[in-house]
Amino acid sequence: MERKSFQDMSCPVALTLEQVGEWWSILILRDATHGITRFDGFQKSLGISPNSLTRRLGALVEAGLLERRRYSERPPRDEYVLTDAGHAFQPVLTTLYVFGTKHFPPNEPNVRLVDKESGNDVDPLLIDRTTGHPIDEEHTTFMPGPSADDRLRAVLERRNRQTS
Fold first, then answer.
1. Is residue 77 within 8 Å of residue 71, measured between CB atoms?
2. What kind and span of H or E run contains 13?
3. Are 79 and 37 in contact (CB under 8 A)?
4. Widest CA span of the chain, in angstroms?
5. Which residues pair with 138 in a beta bridge?
6. What is the sign, positive or negative, of the torsion defined by CA atoms of 42, 40, 53, 88?
7. Phi, psi of 101 (to 5 degrees)
8. Closest among 20, 22, 45, 49 to 110, alpha carbons compared
């Protein structure tokens, strides 16, 4: 079955999924955030086939989330490091971590998110940079943007009437 492309949609969620929507891609970005940079490191961590890993690393480089850097000329070897866009994906990973910890907790977590100074577990919260309000249903809602079609406008207006 051929995968549907979201590249012609005007939705930021769909356009992001076009680049990182495969679970392997998100796990590669997770591992890169944890400091893994080399092909064999990703392969060992994920248990992914070399062909699949090659394709996904190439797609993440093409999307501008990873940069390929040569670390050895003989034999030629590259590493994959996060770009600014790759680093900017970290809050998405953190949000997935928080969601998974709450709704699909493992029996024993293999990683904790902690404050660097105190070492205490942190409880992340998304907030609006301007108001300081939490990004939640009480304080925020989605409104149609300039390129919203009539269907999306109707969906969002109905949703906003229901939650008012």
1. yes
2. helix 12-20
3. yes
4. 64
5. none
6. positive
7. -60, -40
8. 45
Q: Dihedral sign for Cα 115, 118, 120, 126, please.
A: negative
Q: Using CA atoms, how far apart are residues 88 and 112, in angstroms rounded to an integer?
A: 20
Q: Radius of gyration (Cα) for the chain, nearest Å?
A: 19
Instruction: Provide the whole-model pTM.
Output: 0.81
Amino acid at 149: D
> Which residue's entry shows tokens 């969601």?
99
Rounded-to-10 torsion of CA 10, 136, 82, 117: 170
Predicted confidence (pLDDT) per residue in 26-56, tens digit: 999 999 999 999 999 999 999 999 999 999 9
- Say if residues 15 and 9 touch (Cβ distance below 8 Å): yes
Residue (of 78, 2, 76, 93) closest to 37 by Cα position: 78
- Residue 29's contacts (CB-CB under 8 Å, 6 or more residues apart) are 20, 60, 65, 66, 82, 86, 89, 93
Place of tokens 């029996």: 107
Distance (Å, whole) CA 92 – CA 130:
20
Does 59 score more than 80 pLDDT?
yes
Q: Evaluate the CA torsion angle 153, 157, 163, 164 in order and state its sign.
A: positive
